[in-house]
Amino acid sequence: GIFGFLNLPGTSPNAGLQDQIAALIWVQDNIAFFGGDPDNVTLFGESAGGISAALHLAIPDSRDLFHRVITQSGSVSIYGNRLNPVDNSHILADEMGVEKLDLEKLRDLPAARLLKAQTHLIEKLQSQFIFLPFRPVIDGKILPKSPLQAIKDGEARDKQLRAGSNKDELKSFNFDSPFSNSLDQKMFLFSVRSMLRDIGHNEGYAETLIEIYRREKDLTDGTPFDILMAINNDCFFRLPAIISAEAQQRYQPDT
Hints:
With 255 residues, the chain is mainly α. Helices cover 47% and strands 7% of the residues. α3 links the parallel β1 (42-46) and β2.
């Protein structure tokens, strides 16, 4: 959300990750007093929590603070790039009816007003199948480079990774979507083409991809919305889990 991942000039775009690092430092310093083992720390998360847990595999400042990661429907593939960011500060400013946000102005605003604007913004974007406008970004410091590339480079070689995904994770974001019962063919094709384009594939494969899913996922009688959810669920959750696990496999410690 806003307080963790607002990409605003002059501030850290990864304050949420820094909070998590601070929590891991606290665990190292204090968990033994509660009967815990600071040499056997496991990070686990689902959805956004899975993203956070996975990203620590690529964060230098947390490398010595944990030993294992379990992710469910969240992986190292979901992040932004500060050099080409999702400009969520401008989107938020529009939602709040102000010309421009800056740090001082934000500090003067009640938290309740910020959270209300955040909720409206997220609901609006989710209705357009745009998810997680507030996300970690590659900032060259906390998150120096592509997390998947960091794993491929062996920077998490001493960590154990277990990765999975839920079959219908994405439906939890869309059960009240206006498109759930009324997604027409034009919008359906537009959404699949946009998804393919966003992940670097040829959008001309949209019709072929739809037919493959209709056949292979037993969705012959499925609605366009059902098929879109199946495609996006694989794109955002299942395949990234497989890809990150494959990248870590060669470095995975036995115990």
